[in-house]
Amino acid sequence: YHNRTSTDIAVSKLNVLQAENLFQVDNKNTFRVGAEYRNSNTQGILVSSNGQGYVKTDLVGVSGMWEHKATDKLTFTNSLRFDHVETEKSQDQSTGSALPEDKFDQNFDVLSFNTGAVYKLNQLESLRFNAGRGAHIPATTEFAGDYGITGIELAGNPDLDPEILWSAEAGYTKILPKIQGKAKATVFFQYIEDHLTKTIDPLTFAPAKNLEFLYSNGGTSKSVGLELALDGKYNENLGYGSSYTFMYTDDDADVADTMFNEDNNNEHKVAVWTDYNKDKLSAHVEAIWTSGVNYKVLANPTINALVEEKVHSYITLNTNVSYD
Question: 3-state class of 177 per DSSP?
Answer without folding.
Answer: helix
